[in-house]
Design a protein that fits this description.
The protein is α/β, with parallel strands linked by helices. It has 13 helices and ten strands. β1, α2 and β2 form a beta-alpha-beta unit. The chain binds spermidine.
Length: about 350
């Protein structure tokens, strides 16, 4: 009998740490980018506790992973950053057989050049970047990015804390592609951004909704859904994609090398791809879902809102960000100079 008890105690001691590690899932995502009720449902359904941390831009995520940050199980890099992370061997392949809900993703959003065959990433949500305008204070029509350089809005302008997006605006103003591989274009863009800086209240990617809804900022460079969440609080706020065009992006779910709970990560990814969950999440954060089957669960007001699902002619005038390759360190340096000047 005593021997049996001893074996039982030993078995519990050996199994307990493994069992408790299995119950935790570390997620690293953008801020305000998931419906909290969806996380709660996942925790309930799978008995896995989610630990949730946020980053402000792709470069911050990249820097963390490069510095050897282990412990994240699911991360949310955007398009061009997926390419960078694959190249640097910081991601692990995703076994498609473990995520049958991948079948619900619209083919238009699969097999994109940044990850052929979706070996390392699966689509989460997509969107665009434009300007959030508080029409209570900005009475003129907003048609161009140039308004973010208008001195009469000094101190009422915010820009994203996102180097590729901010350089994208300046490059568009210069009539260049956001993916130019010419360093001189980025240097000219930097000069424009330095000129703009005295007008900018803050470079912030995490609080656009609050900055706009509080009236602190009247013109906010922002991701579509964040501006639309502010518009839910104040109907005077609108989202505009300037006529020079803007940035289209796709955020993905991926599993970094060193993840401790790969099994939980796959369950989470598959759960987020479930049509009802994807629809609920997309409605809550106001970003379009790449999930075709989720449309059946999405309200017509969301599906027919051109600020959420832009019409084709607006999309045709936008660009996806691409990896800058060897130019990336120089652009990082220019960004540091913009912020420091
Ligand atoms: N609330 C943050 C939403 C994140 C949007 N992703 C941005 C991609 C930038 N290229």
């Amino acid at each position: 009998m005593l021997r049996k008890i001893a074996w039982l105690v030993l078995a519990l001691l050996v199994l307990a740490p493994a069992a408790s590690a299995q119950q935790v899932l570390n997620i690293y995502n953008w801020s305000d980018y998931i419906d909290p009720s969806v996380i709660a449902d996942f925790e309930k359904e799978y008995g896995i506790r989610v630990i949730y941390n946020v980053f402000s831009n792709n470069e911050e995520l990249h820097a963390r992973l490069r510095a050897g940050a282990t412990g994240y199980d699911v991360i949310f890099p955007s398009d061009y950053m997926v390419e960078v992370l694959i190249e640097e061997e910081l991601l692990q392949p995703i076994p498609h057989e473990a995520i049958p809900n991948l079948a619900h993703i619209d083919e238009r959003f699969l097999d994109l050049p940044f990850d052929p065959g979706n070996r390392y990433s699966v689509p989460y949500l997509w969107g665009s970047t434009g300007i959030g305008v508080n029409t209570r204070y900005v009475k003129e029509p907003v048609t161009s990015w140039a308004i973010l350089w208008d001195p009469k809005y000094r101190g009422r302008i915010s820009m994203l804390n996102d180097p590729r997006e901010v350089f994208g605006v300046a490059l568009k103003r210069l009539g260049k592609s956001i993916n130019t591989k010419d360093l001189a274009d980025f240097e000219a863009a930097k000069e424009l951004l330095v000129q703009q800086k005295p007008l900018v209240l803050t470079y912030d990617s995490d609080n656009v909704e609050h900055l706009l809804a509080s009236g602190e900022v009247w013109l906010a460079h922002g991701y579509s859904g964040d501006v639309l969440m502010a518009a839910d609080e104040d109907p005077a706020i609108v989202y505009v994609v300037p006529e020079e065009g803007g940035v289209l992006w796709m955020d993905t779910m991926a599993i970094p090398k060193g993840a401790r709970n790969v099994e939980g990560a796959l369950k989470f990814i598959n759960f987020m791809l479930r049509p009802d969950i994807s629809a609920r999440n997309s409605e809550a954060v106001r970003y379009p879902s790449p999930n075709k089957a989720a449309r059946d669960y999405t309200s017509p007001e969301i599906l027919n809102n051109p600020m959420i699902y832009p019409p084709q002619e607006v999309m045709d005038n936008m660009e996806w960000l691409e990896d800058l390759g060897e130019l990336a360190p120089a652009v990082d340096r220019l960004w540091t100079e913009v912020k420091a000047d």
